[in-house]
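The protein record now logged underneath.
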Amino acid sequence: MAVTGTKMAVIVGALGAISFVFGVLAETKKPAGGTPIPGKGVVICKYPSSPTVAFGCLSLLFLMASTVVGYLSLFYPYKGKHVPTSVLFKSTNFVVFFNVSLFTAGLGATFLLWPTITEHLHLSRNVHHNLSTECPTAKTGLLGGGAFASLDASLFWLVALMLAINAREDFLDDTEQDSAQA
């Protein structure tokens, strides 16, 4: 089974969509707060059971997979024909979408990683010496923003892949014409 640009596009899109779904689930399943239980000189926060940390990690993993596959799909030699990267980077549109894809993937990873780590720290470090602690959770909205950024990143990778396919076809057509004229 040969690897084609269409198959790579489907893989990138599917991984991005899965990352989006897990990010939205992480945001919607996050508890609003914990219950403070006063103790002797401490407050223990009891949080309801929540899959937020697991969903956040899964969303981040699928975003990273989408980014890696998207990046590799741009430079993969389809049908055994390699195209120099300099040919791809001659296109201003390709350069713009390539950089926007990388930036958006990094932004999505930041928005997913920050609240996931914060939520994990709140759950694992639940004993506080400050008696006025109100048992916070991770900032609301960041996981959802990360979910949308990861979906956007996969869509930008798809646009960059389409531009790479066009540049590749143009280069190979020019190469074939040059060899036919010689």
Q: What stands out?
A: The chain has one domain: 5-177.
